[in-house]
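pinned: reference chain
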Amino acid sequence: MFESKTITWFRACRDNDLPSNGGACVRFGNEQIALFYFTRRNEWYATQNECPHRKQMALSRGMIGSAGSEPKVACPFHKKTFSLITGECLSGDECSIKTYPVKVDNGYVYIGIENE
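pinned: its structure tokens
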């Protein structure tokens, strides 16, 4: 049986609210979401804000860059890196982070949350 998931889009901020090549923390209910604008790629990404290593809410303050063609974020405390596309840990650990779809419409940035 095919199970379809629906996505609720919430308005996170204006498209010029984030620093170039940086991130910010956005709250949605009880969740903290790290939102990133990768200026050099003109792409937006969203992940959980909690780094899985020590359970610190820190990823929104991490540095973004690329590993080859893969956009990534590095935790500011542990320097572990995660794919901004898949959430996979690129530092060899088995942990991963949750990622969220992002879209920009009419000057606003929206993050998608899957309905359970």
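why pinned: DSSP finds no helices and twelve strands in the chain. Residues 18-114 form a domain with the Rieske Iron-sulfur Protein fold (CATH 2.102.10.10).
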